Amino acid sequence: MFxxxxxxxxxxxxxxxxxxxxxxxxxxxxxxxxxxxxxxxGYIPFGxxxxxxxxxxxxxxxxxxxxxxxxxxxxxxFGLGVWFTARPPNFIKPLWIRWIxxxxxxxxxxxxxxxxxxxxxxxxIQTEETVDVWAKSLKTGKGQRGKK
Length: 148
Fold this sequence. Notes:
- By secondary structure, this protein is mostly helical.
- The chain folds into 2 domains: 1-93, no CATH class; 95-148.
- The protein contains 8 helices and no strands.
- The longest helix is centred in the N-terminal third of the chain and has 20 residues, at 6-25.
- The termini are far apart.
């Protein structure tokens, strides 16, 4: 039977969460945006929380006279994870998403539909100007469907 080291497993989860969140933050993995919207930004602080928990005993020793400090640190990272998931601040979003976010929800929804149907959607997010042109074409109905 396998005997996994719990600390290594928790560390692996933490690193995976941080890696996915960082890839999304720097815009390397663009397709996720149309599927899950902002929830992936919370992966970074939640991954840090996993890393901290993997070293829970050591952290508790560091703050042994004041054990409540450990809980404040955990709550801080948990709170950041919830905040980044529920209402991600602009500084955590890639630039191209900030360009898209300035449009009304109906235009963003049209962009989402277009992106799911058209594999060349990434050409529309190269610059702020290309996003503007894309949004205007979707608003007028010229760029919505059929371009596969």
